[in-house]
Design a protein that fits this description.
Length: 683
């Protein structure tokens, strides 16, 4: 019987010509023993159906063209699905969908038959599903008369349907799994009807949906039609918000077509919500408040990071496009998964936390907690702006990114490509229609998630690349552009692995392989700007205490002295910090009597630095009594990134009641240094 591991093995060998054993082990996260077991198992199955077997030659896997052609058809057929060994997680999602659209009482026997598993395995799946439902306030229960059923809020049931479909579609055979469930209840006709209806509706209304979101919508609507007819509930305020959307009338038409006379009035609102999270082009006239919200988020980001955004209008427009679908997802708690969320938090912890705080206006507007998955996408968005502000366009190879899968996927892809190829200048991300209108004189190469026509080198990629796929992409690009990077040399990671294993015992081959890929295929730019700790900047010689009374501008000049003496800044930077306050107001006051004066790097910064001045008697910023400051911390940033770690640590220390109390009460430089060191360890 085919299982998911076997399918993935075949797909990877088909996708990458002459992929090596080490690459497959890395890609599939298998040991050599597991890989060879699956290899023999797959060849046994191929032999049964008279398909030429896979071969290994010089540590590389090979597959014939004949086998590729037959496998493409057979792997995704209904017959293959029936023979498939489903994973635990997939069974959980599929059982939920199966019970949601049940047409008769479902027993344990149904589940055993559906997945070809034992009674104990099916019961274990049921226990896991009960917990899955309980987490969202639903009950998954069994009775003799009704069998297995799902009880609870109708909208929450729908959210779980959306979540299960989304999780399944993120996998290579996800669509086949979903169709298998529909077919098991003879409900596949709903899928064909929904597909035709949505296609006709899009054509008649002139609406364009994000490609992947469109596929998801087809399955959402299909299961909603096939499931129980339970009435949804929306508040008057929520209805008013949705009714003012220009999409609402078109959504009403689609709802009537989908549900006909059986339609409950509230279905229109859910259809509107889902369309708003999937539409390609958003009309700002429908949501002027969200345009204002974009501005508030940007202001919060500037205030938190002390990073002035150069092209604020560009950021506002691009942020708005991402904000609208995110706003409706968050407001109505539509499930959303960001596959890069964990990676983003691990690799950009300071930026992630700053963005999280900067999204406070969004949390306030929606009165909902914003998930780490959503914050991750906003982090990528702001990260791309920072990257763009740091990037010099002159003299660089220009690359275009074409993505048909919407903002979230395009941001994921752009982030990975910019990290892989810092030598390449990337402009905005385009969809297929936009790309057709771009002159080939404006770019040197194309990275695309879909097939596009161009005489320039074109590389077809996935929105989310694995280490192995990154390696193959790097080799392919550097082969076309040999002068692009000093890293264009052909490094054979697999040969290096072989040498290492000959002379040393490797405890974690997967981790070693990944580290070697990063070592050899990552430039110094990719490894990131060095971000010093707060204690490395606010050293003893950069801290001053004084009993003397100062006016606010005099205090800034006094605080700047250590920076001037160590040639961190020029005198012009001090003038710029003072002039900023005069022109922009009391923005440097971050609360609790703390002021953080700063200006742009081009105003006279030689290198990254910070200094601190503690006054015994507070001074009124701009003479305003409600802005009394007794702690001035001058920041001299050289770019948009290097100071973020130190600033994040400073922000956490200032947000800790115990540390801020000690800072206010101390009259010792050594004590301030001690507080900083303690704060770094504790926080």
């Amino acid at each position: 019987m085919l299982d998911q591991r076997s399918i993935r093995l075949i797909e990877e060998i088909m996708k990458h010509e002459q992929i090596t054993k080490q690459e497959l082990m890395q890609q599939l996260k298998l040991s050599e023993r597991q890989l060879m077991y699956d290899f023999e198992k797959v060849n046994g199955i191929l032999e049964e159906i008279n398909i030429p077997k896979l071969k290994i030659s010089h540590q590389r896997f090979r597959i014939s063209d004949e086998a590729k052609e037959v496998l493409r058809e057979k792997l995704h057929s209904g017959r293959s699905i029936r023979r498939f060994n489903f994973s635990e997680d997939n069974r959980l999602y599929m059982i939920y969908l199966y019970v949601y659209i049940r047409k008769e009482p479902v027993s344990n026997f149904h589940l055993q038959s559906l997945f070809h598993v034992s009674k104990n395995t099916a019961l274990n799946d049921v226990r896991r599903l009960k917990k899955f439902c309980q987490e969202k306030g639903l009950t998954f229960r069994y009775s003799r008369n009704e069998g297995y059923c799902i009880e609870g809020d109708a909208m929450e049931k729908r959210r779980r349907v959306i979540s299960c479909i989304h999780q399944l579609l993120s996998q290579s055979m996800g669509e086949e799994f979903i169709i298998y469930i529909l077919r098991s209840w003879n409900q596949e006709e709903f899928l064909n009807q929904t597909n035709d209806l949505l296609k006709g509706w899009l054509a008649s209304c002139g609406v364009q949906l994000v490609k992947t979101r469109k596929i998801e919508l087809i399955y959402y609507f299909t299961f909603f039609q096939a499931g129980e007819k339970e009435e949804l509930f929306f508040s008057d305020k929520e209805k008013e918000l949705l009714e003012k959307q220009s999409l609402f009338q078109m959504a009403t038409l689609l709802t009537n077509q989908l549900y006909g006379k059986r339609r409950a009035p509230e279905e229109i609102y859910l259809v509107t919500i889902l369309l708003l999270t999937a539409i390609e082009r958003i009309q700002w006239v429908d949501n002027p408040e969200l345009l204002t919200l974009s501005e508030e988020i940007i202001e919060e980001f500037e205030r938190n990071t002390l990073l002035p955004v150069k092209n604020k209008q560009l950021l506002k427009e691009s942020l708005f496009k991402h904000l609208v679908p995110a706003f409706f997802r968050i407001l109505f708690e539509i499930p959303f998964h960001n596959p890069l969320s964990t990676t983003i938090q691990a690799e950009y912890p300071e930026l992630f936390q700053f963005v999280k705080r900067s999204l406070s206006p969004l949390a306030s507007w929606t009165k909902k907690e914003i998930s780490d998955d959503e914050i991750g996408f906003f982090t990528m968005h702001f990260g791309s702006i920072i990257d763009r502000q740091n990037t010099m366009e002159i003299g660089r190879v220009t690359g275009l990114i074409v993505c048909a899968n919407g903002i979230s996927s395009s941001m994921m892809l752009a982030s990975q490509l910019k990290e892989l190829f810092p030598e390449i200048y990337f402009s905005d991300v385009f969809n297929g229609d936009q790309f057709a209108d771009i002159s080939e004189e404006n770019y040197d190469l194309v990275f695309s998630t879909i097939a596009v026509e161009s005489s320039k080198p074109t590389f077809v990629v996935k929105p989310l690349l694995t280490q192995v796929e990154k390696k193959h992409l790097l080799q392919s690009v550097y082969k076309q552009f040999p002068n692009l990077s000093s890293h264009s040399r052909h490094l054979m990671i697999d040969e290096i692995m072989t040498v290492i294993k000959k002379h040393a015992r490797v405890n974690d081959e997967e981790k070693l392989y990944g580290n070697l890929v990063q070592l050899f295929y990552t430039t110094s730019n990719q490894k990131g700007v060095y971000k010093p700790m707060l204690s490395e900047l606010l050293t003893e010689d950069m801290i001053q205490l004084t009993d003397k009374e100062y006016e606010w501008d005099e205090a800034i000049r006094k605080a700047s002295i250590p920076l001037l003496e160590q040639n961190v800044i020029q005198e012009s930077y001090v003038d710029a910090m003072i002039n900023n306050v005069k022109e922009l107001g009391t923005y440097i006051h971050v609360g609790k009597g703390v002021g953080i004066p700063h200006a742009r790097p081009e105003n006279g910064v030689n290198k990254l630095g910070m200094s601190l001045l503690k006054l015994k008697k507070p001074t009124a910023l701009l003479g305003k009594k409600d802005h009394q400051i007794d702690l001035f911390i001058c920041l001299a940033a050289v770019d948009n990134e290097a100071h973020l770690k130190a600033l994040a640590q400073l922000t956490k220390i200032l947000g800790n009641a115990s540390f801020i109390k000690r800072l206010k009460e101390t009259d010792s430089v050594d004590e301030i240094v001690s507080i900083i060191n303690e704060g770094e360890k504790v926080l």
